Amino acid sequence: MDCLNFWYYLRDLDKSSRYRNDILGTFKSVFKHARTFHKLRYNPSEALERFPKSREEKLKKKKRDMNIWTDAEFQQFISCVDNEVYKALFLTLFYTGMRKGEILIFCC
Protein backbone atom coordinates (compact mmCIF):
# COMPACT_ATOMS: atom_id res chain seq x y z
CA MET A 1 0.00 0.00 0.00
CA ASP A 2 2.88 2.36 0.71
CA CYS A 3 4.23 1.85 -2.82
CA LEU A 4 0.87 2.79 -4.28
CA ASN A 5 0.72 5.89 -2.07
CA PHE A 6 4.17 6.87 -3.34
CA TRP A 7 2.97 6.38 -6.94
CA TYR A 8 -0.02 8.67 -6.21
CA TYR A 9 2.36 11.20 -4.69
CA LEU A 10 4.48 11.15 -7.84
CA ARG A 11 1.40 11.35 -10.06
CA ASP A 12 0.31 14.55 -8.34
CA LEU A 13 3.70 16.27 -8.59
CA ASP A 14 3.76 19.27 -10.88
CA LYS A 15 6.67 17.84 -12.89
CA SER A 16 7.12 16.29 -16.32
CA SER A 17 6.31 12.64 -16.89
CA ARG A 18 9.98 11.99 -17.67
CA TYR A 19 11.03 13.39 -14.28
CA ARG A 20 8.37 11.37 -12.47
CA ASN A 21 9.30 8.20 -14.41
CA ASP A 22 12.98 8.68 -13.55
CA ILE A 23 12.10 8.79 -9.86
CA LEU A 24 9.79 5.81 -10.23
CA GLY A 25 12.50 3.84 -12.03
CA THR A 26 14.98 4.48 -9.22
CA PHE A 27 12.35 3.52 -6.65
CA LYS A 28 11.62 0.26 -8.47
CA SER A 29 15.32 -0.57 -8.85
CA VAL A 30 15.74 -0.45 -5.06
CA PHE A 31 13.17 -3.23 -4.70
CA LYS A 32 14.69 -5.18 -7.57
CA HIS A 33 18.07 -4.99 -5.86
CA ALA A 34 16.55 -6.08 -2.54
CA ARG A 35 14.85 -9.03 -4.22
CA THR A 36 18.04 -10.11 -6.00
CA PHE A 37 20.60 -9.66 -3.24
CA HIS A 38 18.71 -9.48 0.07
CA LYS A 39 16.10 -12.22 -0.31
CA LEU A 40 13.04 -9.99 -0.46
CA ARG A 41 10.26 -12.45 -1.24
CA TYR A 42 7.95 -10.11 -3.13
CA ASN A 43 8.60 -6.93 -5.09
CA PRO A 44 5.69 -4.60 -4.23
CA SER A 45 6.69 -2.09 -6.91
CA GLU A 46 6.17 -4.49 -9.84
CA ALA A 47 2.55 -3.40 -10.27
CA LEU A 48 3.40 0.31 -10.54
CA GLU A 49 3.05 1.55 -14.11
CA ARG A 50 4.99 4.31 -15.80
CA PHE A 51 3.40 7.73 -16.19
CA PRO A 52 2.20 8.52 -19.72
CA LYS A 53 3.06 11.82 -21.36
CA SER A 54 0.44 14.48 -20.86
CA ARG A 55 -1.32 16.04 -23.82
CA GLU A 56 0.61 19.26 -23.24
CA GLU A 57 3.94 17.41 -23.31
CA LYS A 58 3.04 15.72 -26.59
CA LEU A 59 2.00 19.03 -28.19
CA LYS A 60 5.14 20.77 -26.92
CA LYS A 61 7.37 18.10 -28.46
CA LYS A 62 5.45 18.24 -31.74
CA LYS A 63 5.83 22.03 -31.93
CA ARG A 64 9.53 21.83 -31.09
CA ASP A 65 10.18 19.16 -33.72
CA MET A 66 8.21 20.74 -36.56
CA ASN A 67 9.61 23.98 -37.96
CA ILE A 68 8.63 23.93 -41.61
CA TRP A 69 9.28 26.94 -43.79
CA THR A 70 7.09 27.99 -46.68
CA ASP A 71 8.73 28.57 -50.06
CA ALA A 72 8.45 32.34 -49.55
CA GLU A 73 10.19 32.13 -46.16
CA PHE A 74 12.97 30.04 -47.62
CA GLN A 75 13.44 32.43 -50.57
CA GLN A 76 13.76 35.30 -48.12
CA PHE A 77 16.37 33.35 -46.15
CA ILE A 78 18.38 32.13 -49.15
CA SER A 79 18.58 35.65 -50.61
CA CYS A 80 20.71 36.62 -47.59
CA VAL A 81 23.22 33.79 -48.05
CA ASP A 82 26.32 35.01 -49.92
CA ASN A 83 28.54 31.92 -49.76
CA GLU A 84 27.91 29.61 -52.74
CA VAL A 85 28.78 26.45 -50.79
CA TYR A 86 26.29 27.30 -48.05
CA LYS A 87 23.70 28.30 -50.62
CA ALA A 88 24.04 24.88 -52.31
CA LEU A 89 23.86 23.19 -48.92
CA PHE A 90 20.68 25.00 -47.88
CA LEU A 91 19.03 24.52 -51.26
CA THR A 92 19.73 20.79 -51.10
CA LEU A 93 18.38 20.54 -47.57
CA PHE A 94 15.22 22.48 -48.36
CA TYR A 95 14.25 20.90 -51.65
CA THR A 96 15.17 17.29 -50.84
CA GLY A 97 13.92 17.22 -47.25
CA MET A 98 17.22 15.82 -46.03
CA ARG A 99 18.09 16.16 -42.38
CA LYS A 100 21.28 17.86 -41.23
CA GLY A 101 22.85 14.55 -40.26
CA GLU A 102 22.07 13.01 -43.65
CA ILE A 103 23.79 15.73 -45.63
CA LEU A 104 26.85 15.65 -43.38
CA ILE A 105 27.59 12.18 -44.77
CA PHE A 106 28.09 13.72 -48.21
CA CYS A 107 30.00 16.79 -47.01
CA CYS A 108 32.63 15.07 -44.89
List the keywords.
108 residues, mainly alpha, 0% strand
Please describe the topology of this protein.
Blueprint: H1 2-12, H2 17-37, H3 55-65, H4 71-78, H5 84-96, H6 100-107
CA distance, first residue to last residue: 58 Å
Number of helices: 6
Helices and strands, in order, run as: HHHHHH
Average per-residue pLDDT, rounded, comes to 89
Largest sheet: none
Regarding quaternary structure, what we see is single chain
Beta-strand segment tally: 0
Rg to the nearest angstrom? 24 Å
Helix content: 55-70%
Strand proportion, as a percent range, falls in under 5%
Which stretches are low in confidence, meaning pLDDT under 50 for 5 or more residues running?
none
- Shape descriptor: elongated
SS-derived structural category = mainly alpha
Description:
The protein has 108 residues and is mainly alpha-helical. The protein contains six helices and no strands. The longest helix is centred in the first third of the chain and has 21 residues, at 17-37. It is elongated, with a radius of gyration of 24 Å. The relative contact order is 0.08. The model has no long low-confidence stretch (mean pLDDT 89).
Would you summarize the structure shown here?
By secondary structure, this protein is mainly alpha-helical.
